[in-house]
Design brief:
The structure holds 2 protein chains of 2 kinds. Chain A is α/β, with parallel strands linked by helices. Chain A is 30% helix and 17% strand. Chain A has a 7-stranded antiparallel β-sheet, with no helix packed on it. A 7-stranded parallel β-sheet of chain A has the order 18-19-17-20-21-16-22, with helices on both faces. Chain A has a 7-stranded mixed β-sheet with strand order 29-28-30-31-25-32-33. Chain A is globular. Chain B is α+β, with helices and mostly antiparallel strands. Chain B has one domain. In chain B, a hairpin with a 5-residue loop joins strand 1 and strand 2. The chains are: A alpha/beta, B alpha+beta. Chains A and B meet through helix 1, strand 4, strand 5 and helix 7 of A and helix 1, strand 2, strand 3 and helix 3 of B. The structure holds zinc ion (ZN) (3 copies). The site of one zinc ion has 8 residues of chain A, from strand 2.
Chain lengths: 822, 122
C-alpha cells in the first residue's frame, strides 16, 4: 500500500494526553493530580489498581516527592495544594479543617500550624483535622477515584513494575513503561498469549513481532535487485509508460503482487545518459511478465531494451498502520466499545446481545436463496457483538457475508466497513454486496489505482473521475489537463488536490458500505470515519495486528469470517512466526471458547471428493449441496480407475531433487506424469481453463511449466493456458479438475510443507469434478493424516500405479505413522 | 452508555510483603516531614486565619442560580448525600473560595453539622 505523496501526515499516531496517569493511562481530570516537583511534573491518578496505595501516593512515596497540583479541569481548577496559613506544600502534612459555623474548609498543615495556640480562639474546629492522604489514597472527594470501568480499561500495572519504572526515572525521567519491557537485541521475542491484562500488554507483545516481520520483509525485498533485465515498452490507456519484463524469482519466498513498487534503472551508454524511475506493478501476465507503470514519462530510454536493473522499493506503510492501530487500541477508549475491548483481550465478560429487530427474511435481494446453516449464521450474527463464521471450502461464505452486510447496513447504525486481507477477496465481496442494491465504495490503495479490477465501477477513484455533476466540472477540467500534460502548475495542483479530496470524502460518506483491505482501513482518507459494524472476510489469513486496523475505528459489532482449518497468514520471519504472529485473531477467539458458526453445505466438490476433507477436518459435518449427477462430466472420457469416482492417487517413486536455486524442490518423474495427465484431460475434451496443477514447491511449479512447454504433445498454446500454481496461492479458488503434485520423495528428510494438515485440506478441496494426486506413499504414509488419506484411497480402489491407459491397483506398503508431526 | 459486566469481579491481590514495605516507607516519609518542619519552623508563623465573610456574601449575591448555597445537601454519584462546602484558598495574597462536595458521612461534615445544630438550640 502506498499512501501517495500527498498524505504526509499519515501516522499522526494517537497519544494519551499529557495529563494521563504515567502508570495506568487514566486521564479523567477529576481523578488525577500532577506531581509538582519541578524535575518531575508527572501526572498520576488516585486509583489503587493492583497496589495497596493509590497511584499518586505510590509515586510520591517511591520518588520521595511531596507536592502536587490539581488539574485545571478538575472541580477545584488548577490548584497547588498548600497550607492556608503558612503555605507549606508537603501533602504528607496537610489536612482539612472545617469552620465552626460555616460550611467552609481550609487546608492546614499539621506542623506547625495545627499546633499554634492562637488558632484555638478562632472560628476553626481544629479537632476535626482530616489528613489529605487517608488509607494511602488522596481524599476521594477531593481527587476522585476512577470508575470501575475506567480502571478495567486502563493499563494493569503491578507494584513491581511501579518500583522498576520509578527506579528508571531517577536516571532517565522521560522513560516509559514500554522501555522496561524492551527485549535485548538477541532475545527471543515474547510469544503471543491467549489473554492479555490490557491493551498495553497486547501492544507490547505484538509490536515487537510486527517490527521483526517488517525488518525481515525489508531486508529480503531490498536484497532482490536484479540485473540484465530485458524490457519491452508500451503505453497504457492513461498515456503512462509501461515496462514489461520478466522478474525471475529464485524461490517461493518473494511473490510480486500488483501495487508493489519497483525501481527500473539503466546504467547509460555512449548515446544514453544514466536513467532511473520508480513505478507500480499493474499486472503480472500469464507469461510471468511484470507490467510496471512508470511514475515519470520524461526521458525514458524507450529505444533501448537490454541491460536494465530492477530494485524493490520497500514501503513500511502496512506495518506502520498495524502499529498505529495497536496504539490506538491502547490509548483511545473510543477506538472499540468496552465490550469488544474486553472480549478481544480474553477477559471474562457476561455475554451481551445486540438489541435489534430481526428482519423477516434473512436472505438479501440480488443474492441466491440461503440454506439453513447460512440463515442460522446471518440470524445469530445480527444478535451478537462478536461472532465468528467458519466457512469450509465451497460453502458460500461470500454470499453469507454479503447477506450479513446487507442486514447490518439496514439497521441504520451508520456505514458498515467490510475488509479482507487480500484485494481479490475484497473485490469479490464488494461485487456481491453491490448486487443487493447497497451503495458500495471500494477503496483501493493509491498504488493500485492503475491495477485493473473486476469492480472498477465501485472504486473510489473511478467514482471520483466519473461523478457527473456540474459542480465537479472544475475537478474534471483539471483532471483532463493533468492526464494530458502529466503535471499541473503548483497552484492548479493544489486546487486539484483539494477538490479531489473533497469529492472523495463526499462519495465515501454517501456510501452504505466501504470495502477495502484490512491495511486499507488505515488509509488517511478514512481517518475521520467511524464504523460501528465491521465484517472481516478471510480473517483467518490475517495476522492479529492486521485485523486490528479496521476494528479500531469505533467498532461495536464485529463479524470475523474465515476457516481456521485452512492456511493462515503468511509470516516470512521465522522468529516472529514461532512467537505466534501467524495465529489469527479468529483462531485465538476460538481457543478462548468463542464457538464459530459453521456453514455446513458445500456446493463445490463431487460428493466423493468432499468425503475425506469432511471427515478429517470438519468432524464429518460437511454436507453436499451438489449431487454426483451434477458433477458428472458429460462426454469426458478419462481413465478414472473406478467409474463414478473421479479421483485417484497415482503412486510415484521418482526421487525429489533440490531446485537450481537451492531453496526449493522438484521431482522430474512427477512432472512428466503431470504432463501426461494434462494431455489426457485435454484429449478427452477438457478445456485448459478447467484444469489446475498445484504443488507445494515453487521449484516444481517452475519445472512443470517448462516441462509441459517443451514436452507436451499437443499444441503449445493449450499448455500455456493451464494454470500451474502453489497450493497456498490457490486458497479461496477452484477448478473443475485438479492435479496435485506432492514432490517429496526421500528416505529421511521428511515431507516439509506437506506436514501442515491445513495445506492438505486446501489442496484436496479445490476440485469440483475430479482430482489426481501424485506422490510417494512410502514417504507420505509416515505422517498420520497422509496415512489416513492413502488408506481412504486404497479402500476405494483408487490407489493406482502403472501406465495411464492401464492403471492398476497398487500394492505398495505404507509405513507406520509417527505419532507426532515432525 | 455502555455497561459491561465482568464475569468475575477482579480480585486485586496485593502482595502482603509489598504492602507492608510500602506502609513502612510511607510512615517514614511522614515522620521525616514532621521532624523537618519542627526543626525548620522554630519561629511560629503569624496567624491569618480570619474567615473572609465578604467572599461568601459576594458569592451568594452573584452566584448562579444552579449554584445553591453552602451547606445544601445533594445526592452524590455513590448514592449517598454530599454537602456543598467552600474551600478557602489563597491565590498570592488574594483569598478565594471554591465549591466542593463533601460526603455527608465525612467527619468534617459531621463536625460542622453538630456545631450548627448546637447553635440553633441556643
Ligand atoms: Zn514526582
Ligand atoms: Zn493510575
Ligand atoms: Zn501551615
Amino acid at each position: 500500500d502506498d499512501p501517495g505523496d500527498d498524505d504526509i501526515h499519515e501516522f499522526s499516531k494517537r497519544d494519551l494526553p499529557e495529563h494521563a496517569c504515567k502508570y495506568c493511562g487514566i486521564h479523567n481530570p477529576a481523578c488525577i493530580v500532577r506531581c509538582n516537583v519541578p524535575s518531575c511534573r508527572k501526572w498520576f491518578c488516585n486509583s489503587r489498581g493492583n497496589t495497596s496505595g493509590s497511584h499518586i501516593v505510590n509515586h510520591l512515596v517511591r520518588a520521595k516527592h511531596k507536592e502536587v497540583c490539581l488539574h485545571k479541569d478538575s472541580p477545584l481548577g488548577e490548584t497547588i495544594l498548600e497550607c492556608y496559613n503558612c503555605g507549606c506544600r508537603n501533602v504528607f502534612l496537610l489536612g482539612f479543617i472545617p469552620a465552626k459555623s460555616e460550611s467552609v474548609v481550609v487546608l492546614l498543615c499539621r506542623e506547625p500550624c495545627l499546633s499554634v495556640n492562637g488558632l484555638k480562639d478562632m472560628n476553626w474546629d481544629l479537632s476535626s483535622w482530616l489528613p489529605l492522604i487517608d488509607d494511602r489514597c488522596f481524599l476521594e472527594w477531593l481527587v476522585k477515584v476512577p470508575s470501575e470501568q475506567e480502571q478495567l480499561r486502563a493499563r494493569q500495572i503491578s507494584a513491581q513494575q511501579i518500583n522498576k519504572v520509578e527506579e528508571l526515572w531517577k536516571t532517565s525521567p522521560d522513560a516509559t513503561l514500554e522501555d522496561l519491557e524492551k527485549p535485548g537485541v538477541d532475545d527471543e521475542p515474547q510469544p503471543v498469549a491467549l489473554k492479555y491484562e490490557d491493551a498495553y500488554q497486547y501492544q507490547n507483545v505484538f509490536g515487537p513481532l510486527v517490527k521483526l516481520e517488517a525488518d525481515y520483509d525489508k531486508m529480503m525485498k531490498e536484497s532482490q535487485s536484479k540485473d540484465n533485465i530485458t524490457v519491452r515498452w508500451d503505453i497504457g490507456l492513461n498515456k503512462k509508460r509501461v515496462a514489461y519484463f520478466v522478474f525471475p524469482k529464485e524461490d517461493n519466498e518473494l511473490r510480486l503482487v500488483p501495487g508493489d513498487e519497483l525501481r527500473l534503472r539503466y546504467p547509460g551508454d555512449s548515446t544514453h545518459s544514466a536513467w532511473q524511475s520508480v513505478g507500480h506493478v499493474i499486472k503480472l501476465t500469464a507469461q510471468e511478465e511484470v507490467a510496471l507503470e512508470l511514475r515519470a514519462s520524461q526521458g525514458v530510454p524507450t529505444d533501448v531494451n537490454h541491460n536494465f536493473s530492477v530494485d524493490f522499493v520497500w514501503k513500511s506503510t502496512s506495518f506502520d498502520r498495524m502499529q498505529a492501530a495497536m496504539k490506538t487500541f491502547a490509548v483511545d477508549e473510543t477506538s472499540v466499545s468496552g465490550y469488544i475491548y474486553h472480549r478481544l483481550l480474553g477477559h471474562e465478560v457476561e455475554l451481551q446481545t445486540v438489541r435489534n429487530t430481526l428482519p423477516r427474511r434473512f436472505g438479501a435481494p440480488g443474492l441466491p436463496e440461503l440454506n439453513a446453516s447460512q440463515v442460522y449464521a446471518v440470524k445469530s450474527v445480527l444478535q451478537k457483538p462478536v461472532s465468528l463464521i467458519q466457512g469450509p471450502p465451497g460453502t458460500g461464505k461470500t454470499v453469507t457475508s454479503a447477506a450479513i452486510v446487507y442486514h447490518l447496513a439496514k439497521q441504520g447504525q451508520g456505514q458498515v466497513l467490510v475488509c479482507a486481507p487480500s484485494n481479490v477477496a475484497v473485490d469479490q465481496l464488494a461485487e456481491k454486496i453491490s448486487a443487493t442494491g447497497l451503495k458500495v465504495v471500494r477503496l483501493c490503495a493509491k498504488s493500485r489505482e492503475a491495477v485493473s479490477s473486476p469492480v472498477e465501477h465501485l472504486t473510489l477513484h473511478y467514482q471520483v473521475r466519473h461523478l457527473d455533476t456540474s459542480d465537479k466540472s472544475e475537478l474534471h477540467k483539471l483532471q483532463l489537463l493533468k492526464d494530458e500534460q502529466g503535471e499541473l502548475s503548483s497552484a492548479d495542483e493544489k486546487k486539484y488536490k483539494a477538490l479531489k479530496r473533497a469529492t472523495e470524502r463526499e462519495i465515501a460518506q454517501s456510501a452504505d458500505v466501504i470495502c477495502c483491505t484490512c491495511v486499507g482501513a488505515g488509509d488517511p482518507r478514512l481517518s475521520n470515519f467511524r464504523f460501528r459494524q465491521v465484517l472481516i472476510d478471510e480473517s483467518t489469513q490475517a495476522t492479529e495486528p492486521e485485523c486490528s486496523i479496521p476494528l479500531v475505528l469505533g467498532c461495536k459489532q464485529v463479524v470475523l469470517v474465515g476457516d481456521h482449518c485452512q492456511l493462515g497468514p503468511v509470516i516470512m520471519c521465522k522468529k516472529a512466526a514461532r512467537a505466534g504472529l501467524s495465529q489469527s485473531l479468529f483462531e485465538r477467539l476460538v481457543l478462548l471458547g468463542v464457538k464459530p458458526i459453521r456453514l455446513q453445505v458445500q456446493y463445490r466438490m463431487h460428493p466423493c471428493l468432499s468425503e475425506f476433507p469432511s471427515n478429517s477436518f470438519y468432524e464429518g459435518t460437511l454436507q453436499n449441496g451438489v449431487t454426483m449427477h451434477q458433477r458428472l462430466s458429460q462426454g469426458i472420457d478419462f481413465p478414472w480407475p473406478v467409474p463414478n469416482r473421479p479421483m485417484f492417487f497415482y503412486v510415484q517413486m521418482g526421487q525429489e531433487e533440490i531446485s537450481a536455486s537451492g531453496t526449493s524442490y522438484l521431482n522430474r518423474t512427477e512432472s512428466a506424469n503431470v504432463e501426461k495427465i494434462v494431455t489426457t484431460f485435454l484429449k478427452s475434451g477438457v478445456n485448459p481453463s478447467q484444469i489446475g496443477v498445484i504443488t507445494p514447491y515453487e521449484g516444481q511449479r517452475a519445472y512443470i511449466v517448462n516441462h509441459m512447454a517443451r514436452n507436451g504433445s499437443l499444441r503449445q498454446q493449450l499448455y500455456k493456458e493451464i494454470e500451474v500454481a502453489s497450493v497456498d496461492s490457490f486458497q479461496g479458488r477452484e477448478k473443475d479438475y485438479i492435479i496435485l503434485s506432492c514432490v517429496r520423495s526421500n528416505e529421511h528428510q521428511g515431507i516439509g510443507f506437506l506436514n501442515d494438515p491445513r495445506r492438505l485440506n486446501v489442496a484436496l478441496t479445490r476440485a469440483r469434478y475430479g482430482i489426481v494426486i501424485l506422490g510417494n506413499p512410502k514417504v507420505l504414509s509416515k505422517q498420520p493424516l497422509w496415512n489416513s488419506l492413502l488408506t481412504h484411497y486404497k479402500e476405494h480402489e483408487c490407489l493406482v500405479e502403472g501406465a495411464l491407459n492401464n492403471l492398476k491397483q497398487s500394492m505398495v506398503q505404507f509405513q507406520k505413522p509417527k505419532k507426532i508431526y515432525n | 452508555e455502555e455497561h459491561i459486566k465482568m464475569k468475575q469481579k477482579k480480585v486485586v491481590e496485593v502482595d502482603p510483603a509489598e504492602a507492608e514495605e510500602f506502609e513502612r516507607e510511607l510512615r517514614a516519609l511522614m515522620q521525616e516531614s514532621i521532624d523537618s518542619r519542627k526543626l525548620e519552623m522554630r519561629a511560629r508563623p503569624t496567624l491569618n486565619m480570619m474567615i473572609p465573610m465578604n467572599l461568601f456574601e459576594g458569592s451568594k449575591d452573584h452566584g448562579r442560580i444552579t449554584d445553591g448555597e453552602s451547606g445544601d445537601e445533594v445526592p452524590d454519584e455513590q448514592g449517598g448525600n454530599s454537602v456543598r462546602f467552600r474551600v478557602l484558598v489563597k491565590k498570592g495574597n488574594k483569598q478565594q473560595t471554591k465549591q466542593l462536595y463533601i460526603p455527608r458521612d465525612s467527619s468534617l461534615v459531621q463536625s460542622t453539622k453538630q456545631k450548627e445544630a448546637a447553635e440553633l438550640e441556643e
